[in-house]
Amino acid sequence: xxxxxxxxxxxxxxxxxxxxxxxxxxxxxxxxxxxxxxxxxxxxxxxxxxxxxxxxxxxxxxxxxxxxxxxxxxxxxxxxxxxxxxxxxxxxxxxxxxxxxxxxxxxxxxxxxxxxxxxxxxxxxxxxxxxxxxxxxxxxxxxxxxxxxxxxxxxxxxxxxxxxxxxxxxxxxxxxxxxxxxxxxxxxxxxxxxxxxxxxxxxxxxxxxxxxxxxxxxxxxxxxxx
Length: 226
What we know:
InterPro entries: TPR-like_helical_dom_sf (IPR011990), TPR_rpt (IPR019734)
Keywords: Signal, TPR repeat
Protein name: Tetratricopeptide repeat protein
Shape: globular
Number of strands: 0
Signal peptide: 1-19
TPR repeats: 179-212
């Protein structure tokens, strides 16, 4: 079940960039790989890394694993370069998400990237404890990590709830993930048997972003099974 969820989820600050975060998200929501590819080539810094990350996710959903792997490597390289120049919680969180996806696509990379992911999230939390994207990536990481190794569904749900609360804080630059946080909390609830709670969270995600395709897909799938 979790493998299927990963495949479907992997759906979806330079002032000189030709695309901002909202535009990249819009392209990801409609699985527009051509647009995402253009953004990844025509942007720079964090936006470029984010565009590559969303391109990797979209390619993976589409079954284009080589494109997914190549894009993920580009995102990783861009973020590692950014962090060499300046440490920010958002770059650390996104790189942790990239490492997590690297492991998901190739389990043999768990030894290499598992500890790096944990370290990045610890550092990002210390740097910006109220950054919602840090809490979101921690929630995703917990979702796929067994409780005996410090993860688990309850922890994932709590971290997603924390992220949702933090998304109420003002944001004017890097602001992605609000609808995604509701979606992941819904997934944790679904895995725990709380279908009603999951449906409510997925609907909240669509209320936040009416174009958010992943939550729409999950709702439609649940309707089929009922």
